[in-house]
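fold description:
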Amino acid sequence: MLKRLLLAATLSVAAILPAAAQDNTAICYSCPEVWADWGSQLRALKKETGLFVPFDAKNSGQALSQIIAEKANPVADMANFGITFAIQAQKLGLTEPYKPANFDQVPADLKDPDGQWVTVYSGAVGFFINKDALGDHPMPKSWKDLLKPEYKGLIGYYDPTSAFVGYVTGMAMNLANGGTLDNFDPGVAYMKALKSNDPIVVNQSSYARVLSGEIPILVDTDFNALRGKYQDKANVEFVLPAEGSVAVPYVMALVKNAPHLATAKKVMDYLLSDKGQTVWANAYLRPARAASLPKEAIAKLLPDSEYARVKPVDWNKMAAVQQSFADRYLKDVR
């Protein structure tokens, strides 16, 4: 899969910053302004600490490919990966161990014990729906509903071979239809059936395309849908499918031989601080640690009874079979 990902031809931000500015700058791959409200997070970081992290729009797969390409002369100091991509990066020897402040408060299954990566926020996969664009069509409540002919041309999902949320989406479809981490047949059959509804397959964050009505139903994260509902006051809804779904943990990892390692460590400390975690709670994400969070932020998340349908998975196994799943998708679905 990594060989198939396009290498992002981006100009190094570090190369165009004045030397003085670089002292307080860390380069993060896959920290996009419009995803998971990284915009608010990085602005808060600058205000509170004076540290500057430029926005970067790569997805997890693109970020990993770029770090591999730059291994001999790293540009990035850190990356925000979907958890399976972080495990891959670790196995390739691309990460640097570090246990930021409050590392011990992150659940054991959401961090590498040696600090090669650590979860900073998570969400769940479901349906991000623009109710106005949906028109007279009923709200889909299940994965099975998406196969109905009435939704033809109305559905989008992320490419399972590139974006982490795409891979989790594909695996959620597989598990919901009776598949396992060793048996992809049910998921492949489901995605092949979904092709009859002409789905739009995307690689980058498509938040704006849902709000505009271009994609009425996007298989996406709860936090993007809740942001649209509460922050942008759009007529949107999030539906967690009746058959169940999968969580989407996002982690931070330092890049081995990072050029601004000391600064990057300070950024990691901030992201797991009460202030950093609260920024994400206010953006409708589930923080990685039990920080002191505002009740009004927690109240806007789906109730725990809904999240009970989010299936636990073995993330190491998910990482191990990711290439095989991508191969099946490319061979049998795309």
Remarks:
- The first strand starts at residue 28 and ends at 29.
- Residues 1-21 have pLDDT under 50 and may be disordered.
